[in-house]
Design a protein that fits this description.
Layout lengths: L4 E5 L5 H10 L3 E5 L3 H8 L4 E2 L3 H7 L2 E4 L4 H9 L13 E4 L5 H13 L3 E4 L2 E2 L1 H7 L3 E2 L12 H4 L28
Parallel strand pairs: 1-2, 1-4, 2-3, 4-5, 5-6
Antiparallel strand pairs: 7-8
Helix pairs in contact: 1-6, 4-5
Length: 181
C-alpha cells in the first residue's frame, strides 16, 4: 500500500520545495525544521506543523529528511530523540542529504535494529529542479525497501529503480525527462 502520510524534516533550499510538491500531490504532510518560519509558511498552505522530530516520525508512514551537513544528519537520525529512536517497525526512513558512507551505514544499521527500512537517497539538481520535480536522486537500498517509496518519490523524479546495495552506490537515476543526470 502506498504511503499517504509523509513526514519531512529539513525545510531548507531543497526541502521546502520538495515538501510543497508532496502537499500539492495530496499527501498528508507533517513537517519540522529548526527555524519555525518555514514550518509556519508551509503549514499555512496545508501541511501539519510538528514541534519535534519525534512528532513527525509518529505521524508518518515515510519520513524524509533533507539536512545541511553530516553532523545534523547524525543528530536528527541517530540522536536520543531522533528519527530512528522513534521509528516504528516497517516504517521507511529516507535521507536525501549528502553525507558520507559511514553515516549512511550507521543509519541503516540503526533502522534495521528497529525493524524500519533506511533508504540512502541524496539529491542533486538545485532549487529550480526541486520545485519542478526534476531532481536527480542517487539511491541505494534493498529491493523490498523501494516498494512503499514509489508514491512519493515520483513527485521529485521518475519512478525509482534500485541501483545497488545500501550506502552510496553512485549511479544516477533518470529525472522526469528520462535523461540520466
Amino acid at each position: 500500500m502506498p504511503a499517504s502520510k509523509v513526514g519531512f524534516i529539513g525545510l531548507g533550499r531543497m526541502g521546502l520545495p520538495m515538501s510543497y510538491r508532496l502537499l500539492a500531490a495530496g499527501f498528508d504532510l507533517t513537517v519540522h525544521n529548526r527555524s519555525q518560519g518555514k514550518v509556519q509558511e508551509i503549514a499555512s498552505a496545508g501541511a501539519r506543523a510538528a514541534t519535534s522530530v519525534a512528532e513527525v516520525v509518529q505521524e508518518a508512514d515515510v519520513v524524509l529528511a533533507c539536512l545541511p551537513d553530516v553532523a545534523t544528519s547524525e543528530e536528527i537520525f541517530l540522536g536520543d530523540d531522533g528519527i530512528v529512536a522513534n521509528a516504528k517497525p516497517g516504517q521507511v526512513l529516507v535521507d536525501h542529504s549528502t553525507v558520507g558512507m559511514a553515516t549512511s551505514k550507521a543509519c541503516a544499521a540503526a533502522a534495521e535494529a528497529k525493524g524500519a527500512f533506511f533508504l540512502d537517497a541524496p539529491i542533486s539538481g538545485g532549487t529550480e529542479r526541486a520545485a519542478d520535480g526534476t531532481l536527480t536522486i542517487m539511491a541505494s537500498a534493498a529491493a523490498t525497501e523501494w516498494i512503499p517509496t514509489r508514491s512519493w518519490l515520483t513527485n521529485f523524479t521518475t519512478v525509482p529503480v534500485p541501483v545497488g546495495p545500501m550506502c552510496r552506490t553512485v549511479v544516477p537515476m533518470a529525472s522526469k525527462d528520462g535523461k540520466a543526470r
